[in-house]
Write a structure and sequence with these properties.
Strand order of the largest sheet of chain B: 6-7-8-3-9-10-12-11
CATH architecture of the largest domain in chain B: 3-Layer(aba) Sandwich
CATH topology of the largest domain in chain A: Rossmann fold
CATH architecture of the largest domain in chain A: 3-Layer(aba) Sandwich
Largest interface: A-B, 46 and 46 residues
Oligomer: heterodimer
Largest sheet of chain B: 8 strands, mixed
CATH class of the largest domain in chain A: Alpha Beta
Shape of chain A: globular
Number of domains of chain B: 2
Radius of gyration of chain B: 21 Å
Number of helices of chain B: 13
CATH superfamily of the largest domain in chain B: P-loop containing nucleotide triphosphate hydrolases
Number of domains of chain A: 2
Number of strands of chain A: 12
Helix content of chain A: 25-40%
Strand content of chain A: 15-25%
Strand order of the largest sheet of chain A: 6-7-8-3-9-10-12-11
CATH class of the largest domain in chain B: Alpha Beta
Structural class of chain A: alpha/beta
Radius of gyration of chain A: 21 Å
Distance between the termini of chain B: 30 Å
Shape of chain B: globular
Number of strands of chain B: 12
Distance between the termini of chain A: 34 Å
Strand content of chain B: 15-25%
Largest sheet of chain A: 8 strands, mixed
């Protein structure tokens, strides 16, 4: 079901310059998104997952600084003319054309991301006027179709954000991201503030829309349990680095990194027998002065002295038939915690 | 048949809510019945979970118990005595027994005060004559923020979300309460930290014999943490019973919807991608989120796949199913059958 790569992030590093030293928020991360694929990017607050995707789209302002790497985008519309584009080298006006038209973002907390003084129709058509040559009537019609798509009655076109519920606002955000038929949709915690019934509703809708329109999704969340159902592949991030990446099935059945194992053992399950849950004791490290070797050592129950010397490159999991199931931990046997 | 709470096995009765109701006047001829005829008991050392979606009235119910809203009708009894919060003094007396923990630790702590100030104020108010410094240290030990001295000197912005929520717990415990009302205490925290916080709460209720009301929309965490679950919808309790039974054999169609909406890693990929919902309750799957509650009949009837004429006319009462379970549904037998057939 997956096609050729659309977005290739290689060796991307982002630091935040602070008076007390550089915060290495993203450290040499590689991530490839294929056409029509859902990749889940998972990690705790402060693990650098949002910084990674905002950095890749050049949406960060100083003190954030991209210190290395490349981000290659090859959308269908581009390949016909120019091959692919290196996002980190584009000029401002080229970047502006590409953003939203090719790569759009559903921002965190839809509660605040909508403009409170514009009604739904104005928010939806704004991006269309900027990127597509549409008449007022066409744009209005398209805005109405978009609302149909996300399951909001057309009569709400004239509504202002405060007149909508949290779930509806989130849907408007998703509709906005789809307004220009992008190839890649980045979703940054789109369901965090919503309750479970609405959350499931929206996730189901995202999957349906993806099937229908064929865009690729990069889905950022701290809740691994959501991704297991939603994503084709999952990348687990900790302290600015990738810890493990593999298909949802592999991550659930054969997690290879102790951090992934810990995450899997953190959420209560509704079905099946009651399991003993442990969570992950401790808290994330200070990114200003990371110890050498694996950043997870202080919280890891398997840690040995050798862990302080390993390089954090991702290596294929030896017991796995799939070479794309990779882990940064060379020591621990794959498998769920007993 | 009279209903007994499974939580009663844990300890003596602390708080009774008897037919609590709360109406909000929204305008002329427009009244929101936020809480309708809700009764339940909290017992020392037991956890009762109040589960429901946004707008179901679960927070209002807790705010009524906390004395932050006035009851429209009904009674709240503390240790068997009906309470009346008419004066500041009686409010303070009540507050030292019943404390409330807010959802969002990022906004519930005053950013311009240190942790020490945040904790010492309630200690002075509720423990007159106590050694304030020692009491603050002891509180920090209880919520495992150690070394206490170091954390007491910090401001909220210097703490992580989990640490802030621990401070919020410590502040509630400063009043030496017997009842703790925790309103979504972990929903703003990372998944990896939630478990630790629930373990801490669990430890506190056992050690301090607290009666705990745990409010959440995450029914899976209620399964692990609570003794009894009360499911609320549109201001009413629609189903109640032991946590394990409610989550494994939900009887009310709304509880079934909640259970089937929870992320289900054990049904990997299957459900979302094929457009269905989790195991069981297939019939509820296409039901959209609430557009509004019915004003007549059963409030769930507009979303319920089993709804018929009777449901739209008459609101079912909460009737016992066994000596520990009850549900408010005209079709509770069919609904129960549905789950078994589908799973």
């Amino acid at each position: 079901m997956t096609g050729e790569p659309v977005l290739e992030i290689s060796d991307l590093s982002v630091v935040y310059r602070t008076p007390t030293g550089d915060v290495r928020a993203v450290d040499r991360v590689n991530l490839t998104l294929h056409r029509g694929e859902v990749i889940g990017l998972c990690g705790e607050s402060g693990s650098g997952k949002s910084t990674l995707v905002y950095g890749a789209n050049r949406l960060l302002r100083p003190p954030a600084l991209i210190t290395g790497g490349s981000v290659r985008y090859s959308g269908r519309r581009l390949t016909e003319e120019a091959g692919s584009a290196e996002l980190l080298r584009l000029r401002a006006h080229e970047l502006r054309r590409l953003r939203w038209r090719e790569i759009s973002i559903v921002f965190q907390s839809a509660m605040n991301a909508l403009n409170p003084v514009l009604n739904v129709a104005d928010q939806l058509t704004d991006a269309m006027y900027a990127h597509l040559q549409l008449s007022r009537a066409e744009a209005k019609e398209k805005a109405a179709t978009l609302l149909d798509l996300v399951g909001i009655p057309r009569s709400r076109l004239r509504a202002y954000p405060h007149e909508l519920s949290g779930g509806m606002r989130q849907r408007v955000m998703i509709a906005m991201a789809l307004a220009t038929d992008p190839e890649v949709v980045i979703m940054d915690e789109p369901t965090t503030a919503l309750d479970v019934v609405v959350q499931r509703d929206i996730l189901t809708q995202i999957v349906e829309l993806k099937e229908q329109l064929g865009f690729a999704v990069l889905f950022i969340t701290h809740d691994l349990s959501l991704l297991l159902e939603l994503a084709d592949r999952i990348a687990v991030m900790y302290a600015g680095q990738l810890m493990e990446s593999g298909t949802a099935e592999e991550i659930l059945r054969e997690p290879a990194h102790p951090y992934t194992k810990g995450l899997l053992n953190s959420f209560p399950s509704l079905r099946g027998p009651r399991r003993e849950l442990a969570g992950i004791p401790g808290s994330p490290p200070d990114l200003r002065n990371l110890p050498p070797g694996c950043p997870f050592v202080p919280r890891c129950s398997y840690a040995t002295d050798a862990c302080k010397e390993i390089d954090m490159s991702l290596k294929p999991v030896t017991s796995s038939a799939d070479p794309s199931h990779v882990t940064a931990c060379p020591f621990v046997q794959p498998g769920v915690l007993a | 048949m009279t209903l007994t709470s499974v939580a009663a096995a844990q300890g003596e009765l602390a708080v009774e809510a008897v037919s609590m109701s709360k109406d909000f006047r929204l305008g002329r001829n427009n009244t929101l019945h936020a809480v309708r005829d809700v009764s339940f008991n909290l017992y020392r050392g037991a956890v009762v979970a109040l589960v429901g979606e946004s707008g179901s009235g679960k927070s209002t119910a807790a705010r009524l118990l906390a004395g932050q809203e006035r009851l429209t009708s009904g009674t709240i009894k503390l240790d068997g005595t009906p309470i009346s919060i008419s004066t500041r003094r009686s409010f303070r007396q009540y507050k030292s027994q019943v404390q409330y923990v807010f959802q969002d630790p990022f906004s519930s702590l005053n950013p311009v005060h240190t942790v020490r100030y945040t904790l010492e104020r309630p200690i002075r108010l509720h423990q007159p004559g106590a050694d304030v410094g020692a009491a603050a240290d002891a509180l920090m030990e209880q919520v495992r923020l150690t070394p206490a001295r170091q954390f007491l000197a910090k401001y909220p912005h210097e703490l992580s979300g989990g640490q802030r929520q621990r401070v919020a717990f410590a502040r509630a415990l400063a009043a030496k309460p017997s009842v703790l009302l925790a309103d979504e205490p972990v929903s703003m925290l990372d998944v990896s930290i939630r478990l630790e916080m629930l373990a801490l709460l669990n430890d506190l209720r056992t050690r301090l014999r607290l009666a705990l009301l745990y409010i959440t929309h995450d029914i899976a965490s209620a399964r692990y943490f609570a003794d009894e679950i009360l499911v609320m919808y549109a201001g009413q309790i629609v189903e109640r019973g032991p946590a394990e039974e409610i989550t494994q054999q939900p009887k009310h169609p709304y509880t079934q919807l909640l259970v089937s909406s929870a992320p289900d890693p054990d049904h990997l990929g299957s459900t979302l991608r094929t457009g269905g919902t989790g195991a069981g309750a297939q019939r509820v799957q296409r039901v959209k989120a609430a557009e509004g509650f019915a004003t007549q009949g059963c409030p769930f009837s507009p979303r319920c796949p089993l709804a018929d004429e009777r449901c739209r006319e008459e609101n079912p009462a909460l009737l016992p199913l066994s000596d520990t379970r009850a549900a408010a549904c005209w079709h509770v037998d069919e609904a129960g059958e549905g789950i078994r057939a589908n799973s």
